[in-house]
Amino acid sequence: MSRTPPDTAGPVSGADAHFRGLEQLYASAPINGLFRSALRLDEAGVSRIDFTVAPDSFHAAGAAHGTLYFKMLDDAAFYAANSLVSDRFLLTTAFNLHFTKPLREGPAHAEGRWVSGRRRVFVAEARIVDSSGEECARGTGTFMRSHIALAGLAGYRPG
């Protein structure tokens, strides 16, 4: 069954401006100073975060700590969902994740995709893929509209 994401408000250029605003919002978050990463939004309901797994994110056995998995999966799913909402910041209300392979040092990316929800609650999924193309983790989250206006956030600069 094919799912069609809800339309974003305005013409295509409006959606592109919204996507650039969300990318700026991601880059402005203080937590991202701890993680070398970049968000890319090219279409509604889909996101990609490129990041580098560095030894400073390892647990004692020499692979990425679960913190990194959760951060990248949650962000990828969140931004896939928030790409469909141009007026409000979404909040994560629940997130489930499954580890499938240790994530080692080097480049990786998280892919997010909207699954369902059109009004107040959105469901999105994400997966992490390592540099060899293998999936290392998968997760699903639910996200709810907040009362926080995107336009009121200093990091959100559409355009």
UniProtKB/TrEMBL annotation:
One Pfam family of this chain: 4HBT
Occurrences of domain Thioesterase (ranges): 62-137
SUPFAM superfamilies reported in the protein's UniProt record: Thioesterase/thiol ester dehydrase-isomerase
Keywords: Hydrolase
Nucleotide-binding found in the keyword field: no
Source organism superkingdom: Bacteria
InterPro entries the UniProt entry points to: HotDog_dom_sf (IPR029069), PAAI_dom (IPR003736), Thioestr_dom (IPR006683)
TM regions (residue ranges): none
Name used for this protein in its record: Thioesterase domain-containing protein
The keyword Metal-binding is assigned to this record: no
Phylogenetic lineage: Bacteria, Pseudomonadati, Pseudomonadota, Alphaproteobacteria, Sphingomonadales
